[in-house]
Backbone:
């Protein structure tokens, strides 16, 4: 039985043995613990990927770079700036990995990067809002628990969508960088572009 | 005295315009990020599965 339906039944006056509540709490805490572990591992892997992807840009003929590979990762940890700069870094990686823009400046922004970042920011804001609106309490009302569970499910859904968008961004940039590298080495003329 | 010096030689004969500098000589050599990307993609996939599990429970 899901937590949501359990809460709805309790609200309707159903009684359950204590083991049902304990099982629900155990599953909930296990899910939270698993999420934290996987999130940290994903953040580390994502950081390594961003560093390598940005490090490749100069050798792929990038014309003007605003950021360095180290700071491409570092900006995620700078308060306030982390709301915007990591997005700009990802756009820089995207533009300078485009195999059709070798030797050209590009102002075009990637829609999937925009979608990924908006979902990511909404997830962070909603997560912070959840902690403020529903602080831990020993005796929350059943209505409060139902509302908090609904918001948490929305938070989960947005997180899943943000992760799916991140997967698309990674796969596309990886493919573009490989294609750009192949084109640079296949056509000698492209190796003599104005840097 | 250096006999090879020719004050009348055009500097253009030895001038290499910046546009001929190979792009590939800039920065570190290209190393595919595909391996690291696949690790990140796999973990993001696990995150999605856990998230969907969270919604179901």
Residues:
């Amino acid at each position: 039985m899901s937590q949501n339906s359990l809460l709805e039944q309790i609200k309707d006056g159903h009684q359950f043995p204590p083991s049902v509540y304990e099982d629900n709490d155990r599953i909930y805490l296990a899910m939270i613990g698993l999420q934290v572990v996987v999130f940290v591992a994903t953040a580390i892997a994502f950081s390594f990927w961003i560093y390598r992807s940005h490090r490749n840009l100069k050798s792929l003929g990038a014309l003007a770079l605003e950021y360095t590979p180290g700071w491409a990762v570092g900006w995620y940890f700078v308060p306030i700036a982390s709301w915007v700069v990591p997005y700009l870094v990802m756009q820089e990686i995207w533009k300078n990995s485009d195999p059709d823009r070798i030797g050209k400046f590009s102002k075009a922004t990637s829609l999937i990067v925009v979608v990924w970042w908006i979902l990511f920011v909404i997830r962070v804001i909603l997560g912070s809002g959840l902690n403020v609106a529903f602080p831990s309490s020993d005796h929350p009302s059943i209505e409060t628990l139902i509302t908090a569970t609904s918001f948490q499910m929305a938070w989960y859904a947005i997180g899943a969508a943000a992760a799916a968008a991140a997967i698309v961004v990674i796969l596309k940039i990886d493919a573009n960088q490989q294609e750009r590298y192949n084109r640079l080495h296949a056509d000698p003329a492209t190796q003599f572009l104005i840097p | 005295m250096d006999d090879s010096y020719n004050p009348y030689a055009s500097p253009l004969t030895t001038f290499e315009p910046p546009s001929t500098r190979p792009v590939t000589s800039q920065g570190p050599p290209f190393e595919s990020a595909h391996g690291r990307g696949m690790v990140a993609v796999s973990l993001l996939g696990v995150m999605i599965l856990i998230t969907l599990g969270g919604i179901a429970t």
